[in-house]
Amino acid sequence: MRLPVQLLKRKPDTHKGDYGHVLIIGGSIGLSGAVCLSAKAALRSGAGLVTVGVPNSLNSIFETKLTEAMSLPLADKGGALSQEAFSDIKSFLKKVDLIVLGPGAGLRVATKRLIVRIVKEIDKPMIIDADALTALASNLEVLLKRKTKTLILTPHLGEFSRLVKLDLGKIKKVRKELVKKFALRYNLTLVLKGNRTLVSDGRRTFENSTGNPGMATAGTGDVLSGIISGLLSQGVDQFQAAKLGVYLHGLAGDYAAGSKTQNCLIASDVIEYLPSAVKSLLKKS
User: Beta strand 126-128 with 98-101: parallel, antiparallel or unpaired?
Assistant: First the structure.
């Protein structure tokens, strides 16, 4: 695996705006960590700016947890995003380059409706993860009606099972065929997370070789969505961003496990060792 040319060296005369602005929409009571992990991973992957769009009632929590990321307080009800948040999100779009949708968003009815509307009406490159995938499970036709051409879905097996309406045993037997078929059907890039994660755009399929069982811990999926967004924000195309993101995510997890053991590995360790993963590819490139 080699780094794309735009990641090899930054020009001396440059500023944060040259490396993209990521908006991460999510968060709810009890699930603030997901957004924070995704935001930190996006910044560590090279995004110039990251803003988290989070429930207004929880904004102080995110202001405390996050140092480098900015926050966009959004309308909420009971600590979860409400449909009224859409207007503020739409107004903010001129400032951002792409959206990560779903980390820690929760599954309240109003939040799910907001997610569906965002996917249907917003024309920005988008990564859909976590609870946003569950919100779409009964509204897959929205993927065909969407405005954005750049769309990456990052389900684990359970989330993919809800999307394709098949049990896990069936998926495991023919997962390559299902991933390719789904990506082609909905004209997107699909990342099926798990042992030997698959990435497909319907034409090409990549099977990842990095990663370890220690990464089966809460929050590593949120880290992955952040890594992919950081690469995408720097101009890497969606299939390459997903492919490289998965590889770096697993490689950072391998470095982390080597230092902290698989049993003791936590999601933030993957972010900590991401520079080591990037350095190893810089040497090859």
Answer: parallel
For the chain, the domain total comes to 1
Q: For the chain, give me the number of helices (H) and strands (E)?
A: 13, 11
- Work out the number of other CB atoms within 10 angstroms of the CB of residue 276: 15
The tokens for 108 are 């309240």
**Is the residue at 170 inside a domain?**
yes
The pLDDT tens digits of the residues spanning 55-90 come to 999 999 999 999 999 999 999 999 999 999 999 999
- The pTM score is 0.98
Contact yes or no for 242/198 (Cβ under 8 A):
no
> Is residue 105 a contact partner of residue 78, using CB atoms and an 8 Å limit?
no
Whichever domain contains 192, its CATH number is: 3.40.1190.20
Strand 49-55 and strand 76-77: the pairing is unpaired
Task: Supply φ then ψ for residue 99, to 5 degrees.
Answer: -125, 135
Domain with 189, as residue range(s), is 19-284
